[in-house]
Design a protein that fits this description.
Strand content: 5-15%
Radius of gyration: 16 Å
CATH topology: Aspartate Aminotransferase, domain 1
Distance between the termini: 23 Å
CATH class: Alpha Beta
Helix content: 40-55%
CATH architecture: Alpha-Beta Complex
CATH superfamily: Aspartate Aminotransferase, domain 1
Length: 101
């Protein structure tokens, strides 16, 4: 869970989780969509993989960055999601890992 400072307010526009790899991410994404829970992959490429930045990175590899960008999935989050909505997402993810994956 992200750190929550009592002196500030966060809009939580992205709630990212990390999965084992791209394959698990894809399977979970499909499973959640079949259950009417829509997710997104907000940052599918590491910065050094974008064409506009390639000239700055000189073909250097960043395996940790690549692993992170290949394994994250953004769950639905906004001010209008209820506790029941959040509970449903959690239950479906738990079901996926216990029964399906």
């Amino acid at each position: 869970m992200p750190h929550k400072d009592k002196k500030s307010y966060n809009v939580y526009h992205i709630f990212n989780i990390r999965l084992k790899n791209k394959n698990v991410r894809k399977k979970l994404k499909v499973f959640l969509e079949k259950n009417k829970i829509f997710t997104d992959i907000h940052y599918p490429f590491a910065p050094h993989e974008h064409a506009v930045y390639k000239k700055f990175f000189f073909k250097t590899k960043y395996p940790i960055s690549e692993k992170i960008h290949n394994s994250t999935l953004s769950l639905p989050i906004s001010y209008f999601h209820s506790k029941d909505d959040i509970k449903k997402v959690c239950q479906k993810i738990n079901f996926f890992f216990k029964k399906i994956y």
